[in-house]
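Researcher: Next sequence.
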Amino acid sequence: MIGIIRKKITQEELYQYCEAHFKTFVKFVADIEKEILAAGGELHADTEKELLESGSKQSNLWGGNFYPWKHPNERLEYTSFINIRSRDNNTSMEVMDSEIRRKMQILAANLLLNEDETMHMPEPG
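Model: Next structure:
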């Protein structure tokens, strides 16, 4: 399950993205220029491919992991193999640029789960 997210999703939708592969988190790729995310999939590269096919530019795409049940300060990991790009001055799996990290954080809050929100488990049934 991979989806391009252009507007805020519900907690139920976020739960479904998590549940599809890793249960406790979802992989995502942020397009920091278009201000959208692609979420889901087993690999960041799969999610990245969706954004590239929809017209995103490689230099604007950054991968991370989102843990909705953690404390807001601990929800984001800025780590992915797709982030290793010497041409974009990022030679690590981790996003090193603080401005890119800030943009990723804003997108995750605006489209996935705001820092004021607490993720709840869905009702059985």
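Model: Residues 31 and 61 are 5 Å apart (CA to CA). DSSP finds three helices and five strands in the chain.
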